[in-house]
Amino acid sequence: MSPDVDPVESHPAMPAEADVVVIGGGIAGVSTAFFLRRKGLRVVLCEKGRIAGEQSSRNWGWCRAMGRDHREIPLIQESLRLWRRMDELTGGDTGFRACGILYLCETKAEMDRYEPWLEHSRLHQIGSRLIGADEVRALLPGLKRPVAGALYTASDGRAEPARAAPAIAAAFASAGGTVLTDCAVRGVETEGGRVSGVVTERGPIRARAAVLAGGAWSRLFCGNHGLDLPQLKVLGSVLRTAPIADGPDTSAAGSDFAFRRRADGGYNVAHGGLSTVDLVPDSFRLFRPFLPALRAERKGLKLRLSGRFLDEWRTPKRWALDAVSPFERARVLDPEPDGKLLDYAFAAFRASDAAFAGAREVRRWGGLIDVTPDAVPVISGVPSLSGFFVATGFSGHGFGIGPGAGRLMADIVAGDDPVVDPAPFRFERFSEGRPAVIDGGF
């Protein structure tokens, strides 16, 4: 069961042409479309299902700089600057609040493991710091579990996933952009080795550029054009509670649970230390590029074999642009959450704080996270196909980093000076013959 997401009205007419077509209506796609439109370009945003129907509405709702891979820090700092202004920029309600985030530590050894990351915080003036148990309890006054301290960043925040991308998409439409929902893009067309348009299920749109912001679908889309994008999927499982009186405003994560307060007074709850990975055919095809990540993150991954193996085995890898595509056969990825993982996390959540003891679950859901071998996104043009750009592989960081990623992608497409250095996010890094570098962010 998916979260309730604010609806976004689809444009009634099918445009014949645009300057840019953005493929995918998640947080990265709508942000890219929004900032391209602010540059005065004619932009069409195509979504095969509904805006924010997949992981962009199913994530925790955190917007954090703390613990980022050092390559992402300038981008998340730009994104947080945008989050603080997003309601003003869109005229909507994204729910952003600078509530602070805590990583709880049960032992001094856990605190010591965070110490090296503080150098990144000092270099970029993020303001993260290690705090003792007394300060933790001042932020979480009802905390019942023993703690040695925490890594804390007061400037980090939260937003409402079910509101944010729809608010940005609505602002894009109000500014003259075109939003098409239930409109899958089957592929791109080319002339003379460069993009000349896209083919949708409703017909073609001429355009000089196309941006793929397809989340978990991006590898499949690229593969149909002979482009090898190494990307796998991780299952995220989240539940929400009914409103809780007198609960803490600060977001926090421990080894077995994580939470953030919702605008409705309830909480989103997830497991703080484990993610579920379904083994699929691509798990074996991409074993070598993902091996460094598997070694680095093995304690945080719950591997399993499920029905998704056969589902992905049966999914066509190639299709003609005049034929029904896989994106039309499955409009919205709505995977079952990992029930055992959520049961464990919810029990730990309820036991962790006096305010949570009587918490009542309202709904739970799953979402598929797009992951790259180095856990850093692709925000880049594709050298072998001029006019084709990719923004994907956000590896569980996409909601918080989405506005900054959209602004950077818009700069790249428009040929403007990029807001941050785009080199770490280049598409071609995976074909350079070097093993993936795992930064050790968390």
Automatic annotation (TrEMBL):
It comes from Plantimonas leprariae. The keyword Oxidoreductase applies. InterPro entries: FAD-dep_OxRdtase, FAD/NAD-bd_sf. This is FAD-binding oxidoreductase. GO terms for biological process: D-alanine catabolic process. Residues 19-411 form the FAD dependent oxidoreductase domain. Belongs to the DadA oxidoreductase family. It comes from the Bacteria. Keywords: Oxidoreductase.
